[in-house]
Amino acid sequence: MTLRINDIAPDFEADTTHGRIAFHEWIGDSYAILFSHPKNFTPVCTTELGIVAGLASEFERRNAKIIGISVDPVESHNAWKTDIETATGHVVSYPLIGDADLAVAKLYDMLPAAIEGSAEGRTPADNATVRTVFIIGPDKRIKLSLTYPMTTGRNFDEILRALDSIQLTAKHQVATPANWKQGEDVIITAAVSDEDATTRFGGFERVLPYLRKTGQPR
User: Fold this and answer.
1) Reported pTM
2) How far apart, in Å, are the Cα atoms of 103 and each of 55, 134, 169, 210?
3) H or E stretch including 147?
4) Active-site residue, from 7, 11, 139, 194
5) CA distances, 201 to each of 177, 187, 208, 212 (Å)
6) Residue 1 above 80 pLDDT?
7) Which domains, and CATH codes, for the chain?
């Protein structure tokens, strides 16, 4: 199964460091950030989990829940959390999914469904493709997916930026240009007429026949 933008995020039940969850039920009316890891006690992932813990209030302010997943059992996750705090100074208070049977990694197309066995004996290199971040909306649809190599730490400021854009453009008929940040001008979509754009946004700048910019709506 190949997952694409606007597909329903596959639902599942799994054990986590916060107990057993049903994923869609856990998301509820929030956005969700699901970010995956090939193995516990790996250096780049250790820094990532800590950075996300430090940004927890930023995600909460955006009505977004954070959940991590790693191809190892929950007991190992709990031990890893101590290392994460030592390395980064941040306590991981969000849930980490145990995926020792590889079920969720396969469900989200991060490992081939044909792979047999469990996490035992598998190396990070065996699971190298389990490095995807998914942003999932309250409608349970995938809004974004980004996959990183094991040697490149993820930029979670970019994940926050993308989440801001996703939430803004879901509310208003606008799009965000390259490198857009909160408070900067946005693009009016083609679905909005010039007359409607003036009514909605109080005016706009026509950069090209097909490119109209206006201030960020509130």
Assistant:
1) 0.96
2) 28, 17, 33, 45
3) strand 142-147
4) 139
5) 17, 11, 18, 11
6) no
7) 13-153 (3.40.30.10), 172-214 (3.30.1020.10)
The CA distance from 86 to 54, in Å, is 13
Q: Which residues are registered as beta bridge partners of 172?
A: none
133-157 mean pLDDT: 98
Average pLDDT of the chain is 97
Tokens of 63: 């009505």
pLDDT(144) > 80: yes
Let me know: does 5 contact 145? Beta carbons within 8 Å: yes
Q: What angle do CA 165, 90, 54 make, to 5 degrees?
A: 15
Choosing from 15, 45, 72, 99, which is the catalytic residue?
45
Active site residue 157: no
Confidence band (pLDDT; 50, 70, 90) for 161? very high
Angle at the Cα of 60 from the Cα atoms of 68 and 152, rounded to 5 degrees: 40
- 49 in helix, strand or coil? helix
Alpha-carbon span 213 to 133, nearest angstrom: 30
Mean pLDDT of 78-86: 97
**124: confidence class by pLDDT, cuts 50, 70, 90:** very high
Question: Which contacts (CB < 8 Å, 24+ apart) does range 180-184 have?
Answer: 182/216, 183/216, 184/216
Tokens of 33: 């950030």
For residue 36, what are the β-bridge partners?
A: 69
